[in-house]
C-alpha cells in the first residue's frame, strides 16, 4: 500500500468530511458508535457525531488498562521548582481518577454540572480534569496567574457546583497562595459553589482549616482537603455522555472585558485529538510527549492532558520555567531523562533559552537523541528564533498555528502523514478538515500573497468550539457573522503560491504576551477607572523576549496633580490586582491627546505601527494631525 500524501488526505477531508471523520472516529471507544458524522440542522452551529455516546475519561485512561497496558507510564510529574518527580502508571491513574471522581460525586457533582479548577502544574490537576470527564461533568480550568476578579467572573458565568484547587503554585521567586484568592473571588461572585476541595501542599501559609474557620457561619461552601473528601468514598464508575455533551469550558480573552467561555464537546474532541496525535505529531502508544505549557491554557488541555492520554502515550507535567529553574538546560535535561520524542512549547520560551544560552552549550551537555521534533505554537515563530532552534537542536522545528477556539492546529506540518519542507515564518499548510481562505474586508477571496482576514469555511472540523457557554448569539456574532459561511479567526495573513500559510497578527484587540492571550480592551477598561485618567489606549508593542507587551498611553484629567511615576505604580497594581500578574502590564506613558478619527475611534493600529517603527498610513478620517505628530516623539523611541 502506498503511503498517503498530505495532498490526498487533505482532499479526502474536504471532499467527503462525513466519511473522513466517521473513519477517524474508529480510533475512539464508543458506548454507542456514531452512525453519522455531521449534524448541520442548526447551521451555522454544527454538531459532530450527533448519535454517538462515549466517556472521554474511559478513552484516555480505562481502555489502556483494559487492553493490558496498566503498567505503562501515563504521566510524569516533574517539578523543577521543588526538585521532585513522580511516575504514574495508567493503572494508578485510573485508580486515582476514579477515587477523586467519587469524592466529587459525594459533593453533588453529576453529569452536566460544572466544576471550576484553579490549579498549578501538578499531577492532581490532570486527575481532577479526568475525574470531571469521568462523571460527565464540565470542567473549567482557570490559569493560576489570574487574579480573584477573573476567577469570580468565571464562577458567575459557569456557575460551578464545586471548586477544585491546591494550596498554591510555586513561581521561581515566590509562592502564590491560592486559597485567599479563592476566598476573595467567592466574596465577590454572586454564584456560590457548594464545596471547595483543596489539594494541600507543604510550604503554604493558608490551610484548609484556616479557610474553613473563616467561612464558618457565613453560609458559604464546605472547605475540604482532598484527603478528607476522598475518605471512605467509593470510586466512581464512568458516566456515558452524548458525543455532543460538553467536556469543558475554557475562558479566553476577547475584545471586551468579558471573557469568552469556549465550549468543547466530548466526541468531536476525542476524535480530533486522537487523529492529530497520529497525523500531526506522529506520537503513539508508549511514546513520550512533553508539552511545556500550563493546564490553564488550551495547549495544556489538549496536549498535556487529553491527546497524549487518548493515544496511550506518556505525558510530562512540568512545574518550572524554561530558564532559571535552575538554568537554560532544563528542557534538554528532561528530554534526555524522560526520553521525550516530541517537545511542544511556545516561541517565547525558546527566546528566553536563547538569550541565556546563545550558543546552545546546554544542549551539548545532554543526549537528546530521543527527540524527533520540536513543535511550537501560541504566537508566531519568528524566523530568527526558528533558525537558532533548528541549528542548536538538529531536529525539525515545527511552527503550528491554532487558537483556544479551535482546540487543535488549523495549520501545521503534518509529520505523521508527510514531512513537508519547513519554511521559516510559516506554520506550513492547512490541517485536513480546515478549509482556510484569505478574505478581504467584504468577504471576497484574495489571491496568493495577498494579506487579509484568515477565515475557515464552515463547518469547522470536530474538536473545535461548539459554542460559547450559554451564549449561542455571542458565538455567532463573534465568529460567524463577519463572513457568512466562514469562521473568522481574528488573525490576518496570507497564503503563498505554494499553499503555505503565513499568520501575521491579530485584527482585533487581542495580544499575545509570552504566549499568553490577553485583551488590551480589558486593560483599557481597568486603566480608565483610575480617578486621574481622562482617557487611555493600551496597545501591544513588539517585545524581543515576550513577543508582545502591553503598553498604556494615558491622557490625564485637567488639573490632575499625579506624578508619572505614581501613576505608573497605581496602574500597574490596578491591572495586576484585577487581571493578575500574567497581564504583565508595566509600560505607562502620559500623552497630551490620543489620535482619533472624526467619529472618535482611537487609531490604535497606527499607534502600534508607530511604536514598532513600522510604516504607517494616516487614515483620511483623522481628526487632528498634530496629535499624531506629538505622539511620534513618545512612541517612536520605545523600540
Ligand atoms: N501563577 C501565578 N503567577 C504566574 C504564573 C502562574 N501560573 N505564571 C506566571 N506568573 C506570573 C509570574 O510570576 C510573573 O510575575 P511577576 O511580574 O511578579 O514577576 C508574571 O506572571 C509574568 O510571568 P511570565 O509571563 O512567566 O514572565 P517571566 O518574565 O516571569 O518569564 C518566560 C518569561 C519567557 C520565561 C515565561 O513567560 C515563559 O516560560 N513563557 C512560556 C509560556 C508558555 O509556555 N506559554 C504557552 C502558552 S501555549
Ligand atoms: P490562544 O487562544 O491563546 O491559543 O491564542 C491564539 C492566538 O495566538 C491566535 O489567534 C494567533 O494570533 C496566535 N498564535 C497562536 N499560534 C500561532 C502561530 N503558530 N503563529 C502565529 N500566531 C499564533
TrEMBL record:
Any matching Pfam family: AMP-binding_C
Entry's EC annotation: 6.2.1.17
Recorded superkingdom: Bacteria
Keyword Transferase applies: no
Matching InterPro entries: ACAS_N, AMP-bd_C, AMP-bd_C_sf, AMP-binding_CS, AMP-dep_synth/lig_dom, ANL_N_sf
MF terms (GO), sorted A to Z: propionate-CoA ligase activity
Record-annotated AMP-dependent synthetase/ligase domain positions: 64-458
Gene3D superfamilies: 3.30.300.30, N-terminal domain of ligase-like
Domain Acetyl-coenzyme A synthetase N-terminal: residue ranges: 6-60
Keyword terms, alphabetized: Ligase
Domain AMP-binding enzyme C-terminal: 523-601
Keyword S-adenosyl-L-methionine carried by entry: no
PANTHER family recorded: ACYL-COA SYNTHETASE, ACYL-COA SYNTHETASE SHORT-CHAIN FAMILY MEMBER 3, MITOCHONDRIAL
Family indicated by similarity: Belongs to the ATP-dependent AMP-binding enzyme family.
Protein name as it appears in the record: Propionyl-CoA synthetase
Organism: Kocuria tytonis
Gene: prpE
